[in-house]
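Take a careful look at the sequence and tokenised backbone pasted below. I need to know what the token row says about the fold.
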Amino acid sequence: MSQRSIHSLFKPTSVAVIGASNGNKRAGKGVMKNLLSSGFSGPIMPVTPKYTAVMGVLAYPNIEALPIKPDLAIICTNAQKVPSIVERLAQFGCKVAIIMASGMASQTDEHGNNLLALTKQYAKRYGMRLLGPNSLGMILPSIGLNASLAHVGALPGKIAFVSQSAAICTTVLDWANNKGIGFSSFISLGDATDIDFDELLDYLGRDSKTSAIMLYIDSINEKRHFLSAARAASRNKPIFVIKSGRSHEGVKAAMLHTGGIGGNDAVYEAAFRRAGMLRVNDLIELFAAVESLAHSTSLKGERLVIMSNGGGPAVLAADELIIKGGKLAQLSDDTINELNKILPDTWSRQNPIDMIGDADHQRYAKTLDILMKSNDADTILVLHSPSILSESVEIATSLIDTISQHPNRHRLNILTNWSGEDSAYLGRKRFTKAGIPTYRTPEGAVRAFMHMVEYRRNQKLLQEVPLSIPDNIPADRNVAKTLLQQALDRGQTVVETHQAVDILKAYGLNTIDTWFVSDVDEAVNVANKAGYPVALKVQSPDLLYKSDVHGVVLNLTSDEDVSHAAHSIIDRVHQINPNAKIDGLIIQKMALTAGAQEIRVSVINDPVFGPAICLGEGGSEWDPTRDAAVALPPLNMALARYMVIQALKTNKLRDRHLPLGLDMNALCLMLTQISHLIIDCPEIAEIDINPVLAAGEKITLLDVNMRLHDSPQDNIGRLAIMPYPKELEQTSTLKNGLTVMLRPILPEDEPKHLEFDNSLSDEDRYKRYFGVRSRMTHEEMAVLTQIDYAREMAFIATTTSTEGKELTLGAVRASIDPDNTEAEFAMAVRSDYQGIGLGKLLLEKLISYYKNNNTLYLTGFTMFENRNMASLAKSLGFTVSFDMEEHLIKMHMDLENQDKQVES
């Protein structure tokens, strides 16, 4: 993944069209026509042996005849010619090529070589990048580049659109041009064989011309790269995504379309949510989202006021708002008094504001002005229904004038809905031209507003400071892994409740008392000692592991004869399978508690994103990805809370309001413990816990089925999100004898890290931040503590104070570029703990980490006044230089040759 290598994709200075043509309905002609008509200022060079000129531009017979190396080549030939063309382009020095041919993955050349594999091989050998194949091309309106086969161009704007589907591209273009909405970039990924979503998100997330990103996705190839890039980009700008394949049939179609892996839709949605993106379900919602993004300011709050000339549409809008989880603003007494002066006596006197059907342009404008002057709303939705008593265009014009001249126009969002067709068309056109979002229906307008609200909520939830797991909750990885390995050594791939008890207890998960007995007499003795209620199960490898029969359970809740019950179970098993081998009976003491609620938790293994945790209520027809809220590990207490909220919000989990029912903290703790178990134990493929008994603060796992992988797994590669790297923790002793813990930073560290930052002296803060700065906000601290370990690292040094509190003494952090070429670091040490070797310890830790990460260079900058930092860096092998113009000291280390630098 190289941001440097795709630079030419976004900023080409010259373009070659391979396979350019004058023939009608030829891709080579369509591309040439679009390039020549879009205003691109660089040379456009058609390559074809068939014509002397293409569309009036001198053509070149072959690639070698080109007068300069093109930054960008567009290959318009059939699939069979593409590999040799890519090889020659790469050898010639071309940096990026767009491939429009389709079907390359399923075709071979005369030697039996797969065309796509061969093309990738040639490109990689010479460092050339590929967009496609099966790409429609790309449009960059800001530089007048239309390197595509689109039937129309794109207007300039601040929205980036990236799609795997060419048909979706042309549909969105048609709609956007009709609405007057423009784009910073418009890119057709095609099969995404080389350049993929992750690299584009990294680029667009940093692109000053882009304020929002829209994605159409069929499938994801690089889960971790995609999520890392999306999480980074979504911190700075909203990302909306539409994903095909919501049904099983749709997944199959998407796989055929792009050749990707068919993952589960609910897991995709969980991944999008975790990355801070907002999913829309269809093109109508996508268009609404584009409309709101193109013209709206960032949302300051969620209060919506609805004003309308009809009660019906206003009620429809209010219903949609409440159903979607939105909030109607409350009108203040002052606002109501002001509205009383201008509205008829029959107006609604509440929100929604029904101005009555004869509302003219003056009534609309005065009402809007009063609302904009008040502090009652964050967004105002203006509805208009056709009426013989009013002119929709005149009203629209009056509102546009009111909004454009109002001093509060940048504080509020104004949305409009002009209902109807012919009578409303011109009004909507006026709003679009004025840059005011407008929608065809009241519900569509509200849904667009709720997209903005959901994005705001998601960002806030993802910035929450998680509670720490209590110290008395165990997490004994060694015990769990030993027991799992013993099961695998026995040839077991399924672990049932009685065998899973000690594995689960190693992570503080409570199960019921379980005994395994070999015969009926022993079962009677154990059951009698255990007391009621108990359950008897058959333990039979033939039934449990090798056939469709999963065992027979008999619950005993009274003084029922245990012996008779046990023989009944065995008889029933032999009726089902006469050849069944009965190895013994399992006895479980049931943890039945009055007033408790039964729920179900599963861990599934998604083919795209790996392990995913599911929370719901269960049932005989339970499908965890349909009937449960889904989240990706790793979970902390805040993320687990977010998951429970999603489950309740979508009715996947219902609070039955039982006396000892759902306790949010207990549920979150259980989910976080399960997450830790899954992260630490790659031997576990899937878990089904049904039921889980929730009795207030007590959570008990009643019945557990754990399926194991039958071969070793790559623990890091299987997870979509890199977990906390516990293996990097180390304890060290400083010069003064103080023992400190060096470890990666955690989201839970935010309060301590804020205290650490505030403890720095004014001089140290000035050196750290290159100037005077105010106290850190929660949002800024969330960025510093909730890091993505896949692309950044922060080590902190902590010790325990005399009061028993953990104290942060110093921190060093570095962010790496997407190429893993260079990491830039910064460091600070608590002012009253300097001079005892803490800075050296932290910087050595960072150097070691990035050397092991195969990063090439580590760099940092400090002020001229911070000579101590420069001296420390030099002693550790950094090359130190002075930038007199910027008044900075630069510290640079070649990590590959760091040992040699230190010796010299």
